[in-house]
Amino acid sequence: MPERGGDFQQVQGAFAAYLRDPRHNPLPPGVPPRRMALYRELFLNNIESFLASGFPVLKSILAGECWQELVEDFFARHRSRTPLFVAIAEEFLAYLRDERGHVPTDPPFLEELAHYEWVELALAVAEGEPPPCDPAFARDPLPCTVRLSELAWPLAYRFPVHRLGPDHQPVAAPEQPTFLVVYRDRDDEVRFLEVNGASYRLLALLEQEGPLPARVCLQRIAEELCHPEPSVVLAYGAELLRDLAERGVVGGG
């Protein structure tokens, strides 16, 4: 019996290797080429369908042969760590980061755009709830403790990923990075908000160290900015926190 099991595993391995990469693996003995081609088409189309639904902007930019080559290379080279279909997008990110390497035809923003599209998908299925509305926080957030929603992710990119598309494909990153917060609101809609560097720093601080007293948090931002009038930062920050709380990005701690 152990020998039969070993034989079956060898056949199964050869079958899978050919399906993944028929150019570099021999056809398994005893299986008609036409049938293997059909199996491969079914598997590959299934993977392509999941990637296309998870990365629609990336597909629209690459299109045609470049997109198909990317899908086939992922299918051939990457070994997923999970059998869950919902995790295919995250596995694709791991492939781009660790295995893809330099391909001259790839746009310079490939990995960042893929990450941004994955964030939208990940937040759509993430467990958790935005913080509830807090009337006291809405009146005056400064005396309150503030926390970042578990469904809000502050992000920094070299490229303006939220504006990329077939008609906008920069060949070099702008001088200034793009700061975004992508979040799921109280209506379960995933949204994004472009913010400036100081607002991003505030959200990153809450992500790393929060919950924090709002006044203390804003005073730290003022010190980091070496702002000559900290009261201006506090006033601006209070309005920002009210707006973010209304959106469900932050809440009282």
TrEMBL record:
Superkingdom: Bacteria
UniProt-listed InterPro entries: DUF2063, DUF2063_N_sf, NGO1945-like_C
Domain Putative DNA-binding: 10-96
Domain annotation NGO1945-like C-terminal: ranges: 149-245
Pfam families: DUF2063, NGO1945_C
Record protein name field: DUF2063 domain-containing protein
